[in-house]
Amino acid sequence: MSQLLPLELIDKCIGSQIWVKMKSESEFTGTLLGFDDFVNMVLSNVTQYERTADGTKETQLDTLLLNGTNIAMLIPGGEGPLSGGTEDNAAEED
User: Fold this and answer.
1) b/e string for 55-70 if b means 16 or more Cβ within 10 A?
2) How far apart are CA 80 and CA 30, in angstroms?
3) Largest distance between two CA atoms of the chain
4) Cα–Cα distance list, 75 to 10, 53, 81, 86 (Å)
5) What is the dihedral of CA 71, 72, 77, 82, to 10 degrees?
6) Beta strand pairing status for 26-35 and 17-22?
7) What is the pLDDT of residue 1?
8) Phi, psi (rounded to 5 degrees) for 81
9) Is the pLDDT score of 73 beyond 80?
10) How far is Cα 24 from Cα 81, in angstroms, rounded to an integer?
11) CB contact at 8 A, 29 and 41
12) How far are the Cα atoms of 15, 30, 80, 88 from residue 19, in angstroms, in the given order?
């Protein structure tokens, strides 16, 4: 079985869509342009999702630099919290 290290996985995501969950209430989706050894990341075509008392606020950004210290989770190919792919859609039994 081959081993894949975390930075190798992130490297394979360059040029692809990625969903980034921060330690705060913010989440981002965008195209990964690059990263460094500290997992600071540069994204383009970014959508920022912020949870507020009124729901989720979306903000469009051209380019964004994220500080790796504040990143909690990376989801390669993820479309964000509003894509509907993370919810359980279990059928009800009669």
Assistant:
1) eeeeeeeeebebeeee
2) 9
3) 53
4) 10, 25, 11, 11
5) -100
6) antiparallel
7) 64
8) -70, -20
9) yes
10) 14
11) no
12) 13, 7, 6, 19
Structure tokens at 94: 């009669």
How much is the pLDDT for 44? 98
**Which residue carries 């903000």 as its tokens?**
59
Structure tokens belonging to residue 42:
């540069």
**Pair of tokens at residue 76:** 């390669």
Tokens 């869509």 belong to which residue?
Answer: 17
Q: Token pair of 54, please?
A: 């009124």
For residue 84 the two structure tokens come to 């509907």
Query: Within its chain, how far is the Cα of 30 from the centroid?
Result: 7
Reported pTM: 0.82
